[in-house]
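Bench log. Compound arrived from synthesis this morning; before running ITC I wanted a structural hypothesis for how PRP sits in the protein. Inputs:
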Amino acid sequence: MKGLINHDDIAKVLLSEEQIKQRILELGAELRRDYANVEGEIVLICILKGAVMFFADLARAMDLNLQMEFMGISSYGNERRTSGIVRITKDIDTSITGKHVIIAEDILDSGLTLSYLVKMLEGRGPNSVRIVAFAIKDIPGHTPAIQPDYVGTHVPNEFIVGYGLDYAERYRNLPYIGVLKPGVYTK
Ligand code: PRP
């Protein structure tokens, strides 16, 4: 892996950099409105690694007093896809007891990761837990295990990369979201 990103690997741009910026401003305004008058601390949690771009942009767009925390998770092989059990590889550094938690996630597919995380975090006694997902993957005939409270956009059931989303750890730093050409991952 070296050199420049090959933008020809992208079959189609779903959301341009400008469209992402616009949507983040709207989401930020929505969250600002909902949380401006809440009592108590707000903790915005980034679910690594995919949410990192979204988290950084959203935190600035919200313009609220908040704590920024990071959580790393990993699945046991591919087990998470079926069981929803995830392992915490890096926990947040603060107590969330009595605080308002907002989980920032890049994409919701089966919803199993978030469903597990919400239950786990609720066990720590927060005042509230809400989810903001930048994207939901629309899978025909499938309902996600959990519905986010705030959603940036819907994407088709294809291989999506960019703005934090990867294929084999690549393409996360694309400033836009796009569909990866099948030829790239079936090589
Ligand atoms: C992706 C994404 C979510 C999860 C969604 O993470 O960031 O955490 O999958 O899938 P689900 O709704 O089916 O549970 P991934 O495991 O690819 O890790 P990454 O964020 O480090 O890329």
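What the model suggests: The radius of gyration is 17 Å. The chain is about 25% helix and 30% strand.
ITC booked for Thursday regardless.
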